[in-house]
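User: Could you go from structure to sequence for me? I need the amino acid at each position, not a summary. Structure tokens:
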């Protein structure tokens, strides 16, 4: 059985913990959670590949995003297998406002645009890691084992994104990270109409 790992760095990075209301909603909508989780893994791979095409001259980004894309696609395949085993049809699903809400604050000019996109990537990976850890104790053994098995890679992905953001900025990014942390907190603690893996709370 995969064990819970030390996520102290993740909790220090994120501006807030996932509200317990989200966990309660996830347990009531596990099929939606799994379907949206699959979409999230596929989107993460797509984001990594898009960054590789947009910034071909950044060799460290090429290496890290190539590995990340492969891992995210593997996770996507694993979620699809779980859906198939549980006879849950995979289907299209509207995105939560989380990533879009973050991207509204991305700067238009370079290198600021790249820095911001990478910082957002770090928050998405860190929040995913935190939510896997938060909900895993409440899940059946199969899902618990799977979600705990994802913690190590998600934690590494968040660090990779932060390192690449710092390199792209060629200097400190603390102020920009703090600005996105405020946005992220508002999205996580805010009210959403639809449950999604990265949604806020539902009343």
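Assistant: Here is the amino acid at each position, in order:
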């Amino acid at each position: 059985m995969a064990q819970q790992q030390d996520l102290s760095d993740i909790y220090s990075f994120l501006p807030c913990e996932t509200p317990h209301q989200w966990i309660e909603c996830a347990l009531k909508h596990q099929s939606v959670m799994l379907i949206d989780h699959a979409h999230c893994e596929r989107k993460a791979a797509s984001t990594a590949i898009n960054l590789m095409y947009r910034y071909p001259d950044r060799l460290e980004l090429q290496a890290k995003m190539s590995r990340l894309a492969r891992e995210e696609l593997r996770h996507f395949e694993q979620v699809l297998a779980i859906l198939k085993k549980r006879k849950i049809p995979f289907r299209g699903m509207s995105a939560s406002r989380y990533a879009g809400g973050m991207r509204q604050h991305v700067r238009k000019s370079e290198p600021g645009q790249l820095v911001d996109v990478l910082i957002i990537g770090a928050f998405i990976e860190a929040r995913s890691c935190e939510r896997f850890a938060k909900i895993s104790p409440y899940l059946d053994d199969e899902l618990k084992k799977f979600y705990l098995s994802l913690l190590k890679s998600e934690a590494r992905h968040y660090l990779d994104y932060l390192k690449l953001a710092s390199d792209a900025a060629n200097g400190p990014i603390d102020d920009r990270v703090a600005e996105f942390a405020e946005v992220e907190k508002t999205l996580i603690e805010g009210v959403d109409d639809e449950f999604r893996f990265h949604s806020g709370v539902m009343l």
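One structural detail worth keeping in mind: The domain at 20-189 is CATH 1.20.1260.10 (Ferritin).
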